[in-house]
UniProtKB/TrEMBL annotation:
Protein name as annotated: Uncharacterized protein
Keyword Transmembrane carried by entry: yes
Keywords: Membrane, Transmembrane, Transmembrane helix
Source species, domain of life: Bacteria
Bilayer-spanning residue ranges: 6-25, 32-50, 70-90, 102-120, 132-150, 162-180, 224-244
Length: 245
C-alpha cells in the first residue's frame, strides 16, 4: 500500500463530504448555483485519486488515469469560475441563461473529450504527468484570485441579503485554495516536489538538500491549507443549504 498521511486522509474525507453536499446543493437549488456547486464536486473527484493510489487500486497502474484526474481538477476550477461570473451577472440583472441539464451535459462532454484526448495520445510518462499537474496548479492559482475578486463583487451587490455571509465563506475557501495550490506550484517550480524527486531517482540523479526549511514550510502550508479548503467548502455549503431550504 502506498503512503498516505493523516492530513491527506482527513482532507479527502472533508472533500468527500463537501463534494456530496455541493452536488446535492446543485440538484436541489436554483440554476444560478449549478456551475458553482458542480465545480466544487469535481474537485472531490480529482482528489479521489490520492485515496485510490493509497489503496493500490489496480487501475492506478495506468498513467492515463492520473492525467485524467489532473485534467478534471483543471476543469473544476474553470466551471466554478464560470459559475461565480454567472452569479455576479445575476446579482446585477436577475437574469440567468441556460438550464441545469445543459450545464451537466456540457461539463460531461468536456470531461469525455479530455478522456478521449488522453487515450489517443501516447501513454504519459512521469515528466508529462508532472507537466499536466503544473498546468493544473497554475490554472488554480490564477483563477482563485479571479474568484476572490468575483466573490468580493457579489458580496458588495448582496450584502443586505441573508446569504451574504455565505460569500464570505467562499472568500475563505479561495484564500485557502490559493495557498494550497500555490504552495504545490512553488515546490514544482523549484523542483522540490515528490514527482521531481522520483524522476531524478529514475535517471540516477539526486535532489540537493539545500533550502530544506523552505521546502518543509511549503509542504506544511500545502497540507493544512488543503485541509482548511475542504472544511470551509463543506461548512459554507451546509450554511447555505440551511438558508435556502
Amino acid at each position: 500500500m502506498a503512503d498516505i498521511t493523516t492530513v491527506d486522509l482527513v482532507q479527502i474525507i472533508f472533500w468527500f463530504l463537501a463534494g456530496c453536499i455541493s452536488f446535492y446543493f446543485s440538484i436541489g437549488n436554483a440554476r444560478v448555483w449549478t456551475s458553482i456547486s458542480l465545480g466544487f464536486f469535481l474537485i472531490f473527484l480529482s482528489q479521489l485519486y490520492v485515496v485510490e493510489k493509497a489503496l493500490d487500486m489496480p487501475w492506478t497502474a495506468y498513467t492515463q488515469l492520473e492525467a485524467i484526474h489532473y485534467i478534471i481538477g483543471t476543469i473544476s476550477i474553470m466551471v466554478m469560475t464560470h459559475g461565480f461570473q454567472e452569479y455576479y451577472i445575476f446579482s446585477r440583472t436577475l437574469e440567468i441563461g441556460g438550464t441545469k441539464t445543459a450545464v451537466y451535459l456540457t461539463v460531461l462532454g468536456v470531461v469525455a473529450a479530455s478522456v478521449v484526448f488522453v487515450f489517443i495520445n501516447p501513454e504519459p510518462q512521469y515528466t508529462v504527468l508532472r507537466n499536466i499537474s503544473v498546468i493544473e496548479n497554475t490554472t488554480w492559482v490564477f483563477l482563485s484570485l479571479v474568484n476572490l475578486d468575483m466573490v468580493r463583487k457579489i458580496y458588495a451587490q448582496i450584502r443586505d441579503s441573508v446569504i451574504a455571509k455565505g460569500f464570505i465563506g467562499f472568500g475563505i475557501v479561495f484564500i485557502a485554495i490559493f495557498l494550497w495550490k500555490g504552495a504545490e506550484l512553488y515546490l514544482q517550480v523549484y523542483n522540490w516536489d515528490a514527482d521531481w524527486k522520483l524522476i531524478m531517482q529514475n535517471l540516477g540523479g539526486v535532489v540537493p538538500d539545500q533550502y530544506m526549511g523552505r521546502r518543509d514550510f511549503s509542504l506544511m502550508v500545502h497540507d493544512y491549507a488543503g485541509l482548511l479548503s475542504g472544511v470551509s467548502v463543506g461548512g459554507t455549503f451546509i450554511y447555505l443549504l440551511k438558508l435556502l431550504r
